[in-house]
Every structure is written in structure tokens, then in C-alpha cells.
Amino acid sequence: MIELEDISFENLMDEGFSVITEEIHDKNEEPNEEQESFPILPVKNMVMFPNVVIPITAGRGKSIKLLEEAYNNKEYIGVICQKNSDVETPKIGDLNSIGTISRIIKIIKLPNGNITAITRGVHRFRAKNYISTEPFFRAE
Fold first, then answer.
1. Proportion of the chain above pLDDT 70, given as a percent
2. Which residues contact 48 (CB under 8 A, 6 or more apart)?
3. Is the pTM of this model over 0.85?
4. Mean pLDDT for each consecutive 10-residue tract of the chain (140 residues)?
5. Is 119 part of a structural domain of the chain?
6. S-S: 100 plus which of 48, 69, 84, 115, CB 3.0-4.6 Å?
7. CATH number for the domain including 96?
């Protein structure tokens, strides 16, 4: 445990704290044109906007898998708000059709098994065609 008088940047890093060091504000950023479909991350009670950096904490197994795979594969994701935040396991009909294509800047694993993804909205999109629902939603 760090004593209050011992707090320094180096000590925080030794304790497992994480910082974001990468450039996160590129207004001209566009997803790779080769990426024709996007993993869809359903979120509750929040709306993602382009050019805004937001932490998203995920606890559902599908959401954690989506975020980890997309981050490891350097894929952009589609962030779409659920119509009803009381739904624990959303289906396609439970999601709005418009969301934001986003880049995952960093993944932070939490002690309780959840993860927080630091994301930056790139641009708005409309999910036209869902091409899969397992292991998570994916749309064009």
C-alpha cells in the first residue's frame, strides 16, 4: 500500500495504475476502409458523440469479449444506446439504429472482473444490417 507521503508518478505505476499516453484527439480520423462491419457495443443510459472521449465500463461477458477482441485486433466499434436500460440481455430490437463509430484507446482491467474501455467517438453511423449476434452483435 502507498503511504500518502510516498505518492509519486513512479510509485503509482508500481502499484498498477494506468495512464493514457497516446494522442487521443484527431478530428480527421476515419475508420479503416477495409473494415466493412463493426462489433456493436450496446450501452445503457449514455450517448456517445463524435470527437468525445468517454470511459465505458463493461460487466456483461459479451461486452467484455467484444471490447478485448476489438482492442487486440485494432478494430473500430459501433456504440449504440439501448432503448430500455432495464433490459439486461438486449436483442437487436432493443437497440437504437443510430450510434457512433468509436476507437478504443485503452483497456483497463478492474479488480472485480469488469473492464473499462477509454473510447473516442469518430463519427455517427446507422446500423443497417446485423450480420451476426454471437459471440456479440456485428453490423454493417
1. 76
2. 54, 79, 99, 100, 102, 119, 121
3. no
4. 51 53 53 82 94 94 95 96 93 96 95 94 94 94
5. yes
6. 48
7. 2.30.130.40
